[in-house]
Design brief:
alpha/beta, five-stranded parallel beta sheet, 43 helices, 12 strands
Length: 882
């Protein structure tokens, strides 16, 4: 057996890539050895096996090689690997020298690509002359020994595409494919099980790219190759079979139907055909694909399209946007391709994440944004995304025209829509955060397009990947990606429909909210309310903003604010809601319907009670009076309860008891509901405050059990939080702390008041751990604060949190830090306008502790400094600088 020569490639010197058939090792190895002895650098790899995919090492060597020595034998000429290697080097314009060791000749088209002086038939020379000829040829490119410059072999003329792409026509120069590893595996698996797989997804999501990557991974799996057919330039259906034949180097005879002729030519082939961009000639592609697959057992097709082909046996793969981490990696990689020094760091990481989010993780948009980043900076790109169709331009020059700007990509998709689909598409842009079929049917319909036409259009838009459909727990919501939505809104404005559709959207929101109050205070489960109402918060916000905007209708805004108040409350979003309360208050007038006015005044009172107790006393009476005038028992109970809790927080127990007694009497005649338990809960609080803990505790327990009986776990947990934090004696830390841990473990995100419950429970757990100060308590307290510090936006919870953090600081001998945190807490206490007994006790205790260690003047100066801290600064201070 011939001894295998080791590759003699020296990294800093030119080398020759040796391509040969492994079956000819006995003939080839001696040739390589004497060439190495003559001083040539050779690169070879006899470890390639026939069924493998091109390895990166081979691709890198082919790119770096100064030229190629192709050993032509029957084995090498029949090897896909060898022919691919030869085609690549010819395509690069590098010198190729062919040695024929037997009478085998290269395929005709490849042979024509080489000059006569590049072909060396060993049989035509004696040994000495043969070696001299070969040394002379190779010395023009890669002999490292010093020598006079030799005439460089002329580069071959560019051969026809068919010659280079002997068994495929796939592009070989592709950037890194990021974040698609699992999708690649799934697609290959689908191709193993099905003859036709269609990759579908929105424009720019990367359908073409992943199809090519799958094709490259399958080059050795098909005897007759893998072929890319780009259908975007095809404008007429009858051109489809001609385009496929041209891409595959198949000559179709004249006088025969092109589709029939193509089916005949493909009948006996074993190949994979990539049909790219099928959507605009979808019917023709579907018909041809069906005919080919019916006629052949060994042809497979991988299509990319914004719409399904609809052929029997078709398997569908929906390509989604990139995830957050992969999108950021792609952005950075593409920015570095423009500017090598670009990098992600602490200064731009948040901006990159925001760009990726706003561009929905769409690779094409990310690449265009990344190309701008070195010049504009990431913040500059982010700030300009509102004008994204002017910013996101400048795609690769080699890209199709429709992929060179984001606008062109969307114009391509939009141009395929019929009139009704286009009208529905632009009107759907008014929705924020998604929508239901029912909502779309109401908002997108008009005198010409009824709700059934909207349903048909929505199905068509989903099929064309312009609308995303997402189903969870048997509920389907639809949404436009943000970039697609921005495009739809531009089309809406161009059609002169913006004002009418915005008004229709706000009117739908108002109708949608009509049953909310009854369900909220009734016996609907938390999960039912969460599933129906939580997803629409973005749409409600958009409707309110429009109603109070320059082209809006304030009366409609007041109605929506009134109807949605507790929806923001149960999600602990009062900081978002309260400014709208102010806007609505300023627009109340004699024309405001009485029912809307009453609902708004009650909602305002409840909002201030939950979110700004300092102002609650100013408006509570007006809410109660409006409820009395309405004659609505449920509204009056709600208003009285809001008044009662407001009085309780401010320590006005007599007034609390008065309104609580009235509320309880009204609720006594009603069946069990959240509203009834709310009235009972207020009464239990009065008993605890006036009589004591012992008679009140069983009442709280019964209320919690009643709420859990019909799935109102959120309110039950909120009441439980109240009981554990205010009724269980704080001095008994070993009981209270496990109870608080248990409450935290019970709360689910979908429950009413979950954010508020988590936030308040975490604050009190932190407080009790700070008070107990057993080994490990401070560490646990810090972890609790870290995990839940953003759980509640209420000032009261933040106030207690900072008092507890100040207590930890002072017990850790950091009196200065404690004084600063105390100053921040004092600012927050003033903003709340009231405080619970527990916080008053803690506040007074901390002030006494500070006075024991610091002079009064120094305390005042440190408190003033602390009052200006941000939430993040306070947390870092409280945790010792973390």
């Amino acid at each position: 057996m011939a001894e295998r020569p080791e590759p003699s490639y020296v990294g800093d010197q030119p080398f020759v890539f040796v391509s040969y058939g492994h079956a000819d090792s006995e003939l080839v190895f001696p040739e390589m050895r004497w060439l190495q002895e003559a001083g040539f650098n050779l690169w070879h790899d006899d470890g390639i096996h026939v069924g493998s995919v091109w390895r990166k090492a081979i691709a890198d060597a082919l790119t770096a090689a100064a030229g190629m020595l192709f050993v032509a034998t029957k084995s090498s000429v029949e090897s896909d690997h060898c022919l691919k290697e030869l085609s690549f080097v010819l395509d690069e314009g590098k010198p190729v020298f062919v040695v024929q060791l037997d009478d085998t000749k290269l395929p005709g088209l490849l042979r024509l690509s080489l000059a006569d002086r590049q072909m060396l038939n060993r049989a035509e020379f004696d040994e000495k002359a043969y070696r001299a000829k070969l040394v002379q040829a190779l010395s023009t490119v890669a002999k490292p020994a010093p020598r006079a410059p030799a005439e460089k072999a002329s580069s071959p003329a560019a051969p026809p595409a068919a010659a280079i792409r002997y068994t495929n026509n796939l592009p070989k120069r592709l950037g890194a494919l990021i974040g698609r590893e699992s999708e690649m595996g799934e697609l290959v698996g689908l191709l193993e099980r099905a003859d036709l797989v269609t990759i579908t997804g929105t424009g720019g999501v990367g359908k073409t790219r992943i199809a090519i990557e799958v094709g490259l991974s399958q080059l050795d799996a098909y005897e007759d190759g893998v072929w890319l057919v780009e259908l975007a330039p095809v404008s007429e259906p009858e051109q489809v079979p001609v385009a496929i034949a041209r891409a595959m180097n198949i000559e179709l005879p004249g006088g025969q139907d092109p589709q029939e002729a193509l089916v005949d030519r493909l009948r006996a082939r074993e190949c994979l055909v990539l049909l790219d961009n099928c959507e605009h000639v979808i019917d023709a592609v579907a018909g041809l694909a069906g005919a080919v697959l019916d006629a052949s057992d060994s042809v497979k097709m991988l299509a990319s399209s914004q719409e399904l082909l609809g052929v029997e046996g078709e398997r569908v793969f929906r390509l989604r946007s990139l995830g957050e981490a992969d999108a950021a990696e792609l952005f950075v990689e593409r920015a570095q391709a423009v500017e090598a020094t670009f990098k992600a760091d602490a200064r731009n990481r948040d901006a990159i994440a925001a760009i990726c989010h706003r561009l929905d993780g769409i690779p094409l948009a990310l690449e265009m944004a990344a190309a701008r980043a070195p010049a504009l900076g990431c913040e500059g790109v982010l700030q300009r995304l509102d004008d994204r169709f002017r910013v996101l331009t400048g795609g690769r020059r080699t890209a199709l025209p429709r992929q060179r700007t984001l606008l062109a990509t969307l114009d391509w998709s939009h141009g395929l829509l019929n009139e009704i689909d286009a009208a529905v598409f632009r009107r759907l842009g008014v929705f924020t955060g998604g929508f239901t079929l029912e909502a779309a049917s109401e908002v997108a319909a008009d005198d010409r397009i009824d709700e059934f036409a909207v349903m048909d259009a929505l199905s068509s838009l989903v099929a064309k990947s312009l609308v995303v459909a997402e189903t969870e727990n048997d509920r389907t919501r639809y949404r436009l990606l943000e970039t697609t939505r921005a495009y739809a809104l531009e089309k809406l404005d161009a059609a002169g429909e913006t004002l009418a559709v915005q008004r229709g959207h706000a009117e739908w929101v108002n109708r949608f909210l009509e049953p909310f109050s009854a369900e909220m205070w009734g016996v609907a489960t938390d999960d039912e309310i969460a599933a129906r109402y939580y997803p629409e918060l973005d749409n409600i916000e958009r409707a309110i903003d429009w109603a109070f905007g320059p082209t809006g209708e304030p009366d409609l805004g007041i109605a929506i604010v009134a109807a949605s108040g507790w929806l923001w409350g149960i999600r602990s979003l009062y900081p978002t809601y309260l400014p709208w309360v102010g806007a609505a208050t300023g627009r109340l007038s004699a024309t405001t319907p009485q029912a809307v006015r009453t609902a708004f005044l009650i909602a305002r009172a409840s909002a201030f009670m939950m979110g700004n107790q300092g102002h609650a006393l100013e408006v509570i009476d007006e809410g109660v009076q409006a409820a009395r005038a309405s004659g609505d028992r449920h509204a009056l109970i709600e208003a009285l309860d809001a008044a009662g809790y407001t009085f309780l927080i401010h320590g006005r127990l007599d007034e609390t008891k008065t309104v609580s007694d009235e509320s309880l009497a009204l609720a006594a005649e009603l069946p069990l509901s959240r509203l009834v338990t709310q009235a009972r809960h207020l009464a239990a609080w009065v008993i605890w405050q006036t009589v004591g803990e012992q008679p009140a505790a069983p009442l709280f327990g019964r209320i919690v059990m009643d709420l859990r009986s019909f799935g109102a776990d959120g309110l039950a947990n909120w009441f439980l939080v109240n009981a554990v934090t205010d009724i269980v004696p704080r001095s008994d830390h070993d009981i209270a702390i496990p109870n608080l841990r248990d409450v935290l473990a019970r709360i689910r995100p979908s429950e009413m008041f979950s954010t508020l419950s988590v936030g308040v429970t975490a604050q009190f757990l932190l407080l009790l751990l700070a008070e107990r100060a057993a080994p490990g308590d401070f560490d646990e307290g810090i972890q609790v604060a870290r995990a839940h510090r953003k759980a509640s936006g209420l000032n009261g919870a933040a106030y207690i949190n900072n008092l507890a953090m100040a207590l930890i600081a002072i017990k850790s001998d950091r009196a200065d830090d404690a004084a600063k945190l105390f100053g921040l807490a004092e600012r927050q206490r003033a903003a709340v306008g009231s405080e619970l007994p527990i916080s008053r006790e803690l506040f007074n205790d901390l002030r006494s502790r500070l006075r024991e260690g610091l002079p009064e003047a120094e305390i005042a100066a440190l408190m003033a400094e602390g009052a200006s801290l941000t939430a993040d600064e306070a947390f870092r201070l409280a945790t010792g600088g973390e």
